[in-house]
Amino acid sequence: MYKLLLFFLLPFVAMAQTDSTDIIVKQLMEKQKIAGLSLAVIKNGVAVVNKGYGLANVELNVPVNAETVIRLGSVSKQFFTTAIMKLMEEGKLSIEDHVHRFFPDAPETWRPIQIKHLMSHTSGLQREGPAYNNFNIQPDINIIRSAYSLPLVFATGEKYQYCNLAYFMLADIIRQASGMPWEKYIHEKLFVPAGMMNSYLTDFYRIIPNRAEGYMHRGDTLLNATAMLAIRPSGGFLSTSTDMIKWEKAIREKKIILKKENWEQLWQPFIKTSANADAKQYYGFGWFVDEYKGRKIVAHDGANIGFRSVYTRFVNDGLTIIILTNTDEANPRAIANALADHYFRK
What we know:
globular
């Protein structure tokens, strides 16, 4: 009798969970004035939610779904650090290599910088290369060389300071070490093995099926976001919630792409991100390592003009929440935290 009752109750329990998730997401989307959002919730390796809310294209009234392609922003950084670890496994570089191996004309002040410092935002380089222009498509090396004349902000390895310039350098190192464009290497060595066939370079001009438009607000008025023509390796990819679930599977199982120990090295604390003695946030290689209400998380946020995202892994609790949005003012971390509170209450 008990088993029979459980059989009938399970669909209603699942429906209640979905309804609760929907209520939380829709309320916060309205509060944050988010046009569209794609959500994946994975529990113990099983995707319990994979769906869209709102609109991918407001003008055409196209809804977001699990296959909507949305900019990841700096959630992309983990792909570059994973690619570096893959090249290390292939014997083509070491994370202990100094950057002068790949940029022999770099200034002497850059001599102490190693690849691991680029991966962890501890290089001391300026945050941005001054030649970067959102409306100018140019080789990564131009951005890198434009910073040659700038002083280091601090001594290499001394502390953490977020640095997109470092990820331009990682991208070019991938190109040099692999002998192919960095986006091709990441596609072939990471996306294809993981089965991520709807993840793309943030090419503004390419026709990409199911791509979401980006939005921003002027006061209460929703506008099309400023176009980003240039490609920033620091936020270089677009993806779907379905593809990100596949990526999470690769990360969780640690059976493909990298050896287990190299997967785990990516989220080992490398540098504390704050001088505050009470702070518990560290940066690893392309991931933040932190706590949320006493629970360990490995996470990263992403932001491009018109897009905001977050990828949060509660590593000891078997819960991962991935949120991709197409609105500049969105705060997906707040939504992920609200959802985490909900799932941990159950």
